[in-house]
Design brief:
Elements lengths: L1 E5 L2 E7 L7 E6 L2 E6 L5 H10 L1 H17 L10 E4 L2 E10 L5 E5 L2 E7 L10 H31 L5 E5 L6 E3 L4 E5 L7 H14 L7 H10 L3 H10 L9
Helix pairs in contact: 3-4, 4-5
Amino acid sequence: MEVISFLDREIEIIRRARRRSLTITMHSYKNISVKTNNQTSQKQIVDFLMSKKTWIEKNLAKLQHIEEQFVSPTFKEGAYFPFLGELKYLQFSSTQKSKIYFKIEDGFLVCYQPSNVSGYSALNSEIFFSKLKIFYKSEAEFYLRSRLAEWSSRIGLEPLKLNFRSNHTRWGSCSSRKHISLNWKLICQSPLLIDYVLVHELCHLRYLNHSTDFWNMVEDYFPSYREVEKILGEQVKLGHFLS
């Protein structure tokens, strides 16, 4: 891996023979890369970074603030887990069933364990989060399918296929084949934000771009879409504990 030092951190250099431009990618507060071609010297890269120093520092501060806001929940009773825009208090309970499973009950996230398992200390953290991920994904697919059907009926547009994926920064996408993909970790966001993503992707079924016509159509259903876009950007890490 090729790295250079800048602003007291290591910057990864990713080279592609056909790339024509220099671009900066900030994956997180601690993970930054520069994409360029094979001919660009390290001095040219450093000069480029220096020219963008103010912009980089501003966005590093923003990313750090976001990461400090969304600390991953821990594996212990009393921890809070985001679900449909609310924080659910984690409780452990026993069950006669032979497998671990989760339910949302009375505002709590309840982890049911076989009665022969005593407390969360008997659980392995890896097992806990693998089961939790299955629960979140199942809940997400049911909820997102239902909401998408409602918005499809209202807008009068329906995808030919619906897929569910897990991405770090992308909430959804729409292909030229009229296939919509949704990030199932949306289940951590509030119903309002989820509805916006669904409307956004459904509008792409008519306009496969971000033209003025596209945004006008989005605004017909979501007049406050600019504010919603901003909030989604600030909460991009809310579901990262499910990665």
